[in-house]
Amino acid sequence: MLTGxxxxxxxxxxxxxxxxxxxxQCLPEEKIQVLKDLEEKQRPLIMVGDGVNDAPALATADIxxxxxxxxxxxxxxxxxxxxxKDDLTRVSEAIRxxxxxxxxxxxxxxxxxxxxxxxxxxxxxGLIPALLGxxxxxxxxxVSILSALRARREKSHTRMHMKPRIS
Length: 167
Description:
The protein is an alpha/beta fold. It folds into two domains: about 5-85, HAD superfamily/HAD-like (Rossmann fold); about 90-160. It is built from seven helices and four strands; from the N terminus they run ααβαβαβαααβ. Strands 1-2-3-4 form a four-stranded mixed β-sheet. Strand 1, helix 3 (about 55-60) and strand 2 form a beta-alpha-beta unit. Helix 5 packs antiparallel against helix 6 (about 130-150). The longest helix is centred in the middle third of the chain and has 36 residues, at about 90-125. The two termini are about 25 Å apart.
């Protein structure tokens, strides 16, 4: 846990959420240094913050999540995701949502690949004319897209804004 707060408060909060590694009274530069010093086995690293002092660390972290309801614009602009409600339980929800979205995306790609391979094998025998093969490719693309849209259904139940990170 990295915080600019007093050590006593930081340790009380850390104890409640089961965090053993606490860095309190950190300046923005110190937060960045702690993040950079983490070993590769401790990654990916998620940083959650709400203030202007958190913005550099949010940008440095592998994944930055800003608590946006009452947080600073700088934090929101530096983060990869913004949770609009000041509720830390939403962080675990964002992580779950991201994992579920990636699972749906991977499944959709595999579905498209398997259907394409099956159709190519059938087409290689000459049973499918070229024009029909082109039309079937559009069907495969549509099936893959519709499969990927399953992730949108899940996402619509939560109130958070995810934005692509531009490096």
